[in-house]
Amino acid sequence: MTSEAPEPNTPPTPRGDTTGPQSEGRTTAAGAEIGALIGAGFGLLFLIINSSQFSTVGRTLVIALGALAFAGIAVFAVRGLMRSRAAASARDRRGPPFGRAYWIIVLIEAVLLFAGARLLSGLGHPELGVAWVAVVVGTHFYALGWVFGLDRFHVLATIVTLCGIGGFIAFFAAAPAFIPVISGVISGFALLGFAMWALVPVDR
Which segments carry the region annotation Disordered (predicted)? Predict the structure, then answer.
């Protein structure tokens, strides 16, 4: 009676091995952690700036929720960055997400934000600034979704852009008080929510 000899030089895969074939298909997209931090930072800033017209209790609640969400995102994003660096040689990455394309997007965004805000102020409608910011920030996430390989950012881009457009609609509907709520607070929570979603692993 004979038995088959084990294959030489084939060490067993330990349980819980995150680099084995069973787990290679699920991981965060390239740049997801940094992208989540960027989105969450914008979201918290939107809440802080645009909740000033709320009551003291309402503003405190909005900012507290935003701060808690940002803190949670920051913890998971930093942990994800540390894990990805430790396992960099075993992960299938598209390449560094912060290449020339990323910085071109950021430069265009900065120019549009500054020029648009100055133009609106010059026309006597500075209250439309937050709506313009939401449109620019929203559309720039379309490009970032491509750079980071994170298609779900396209959904975020659509929501925030629509919030910005909603602010312009509120202005033309003679309801300017709703501009910071629609374009600012709602956009802020959308950014925070999608920053959390960005950290969910995707199929590679």
Answer: 1-26
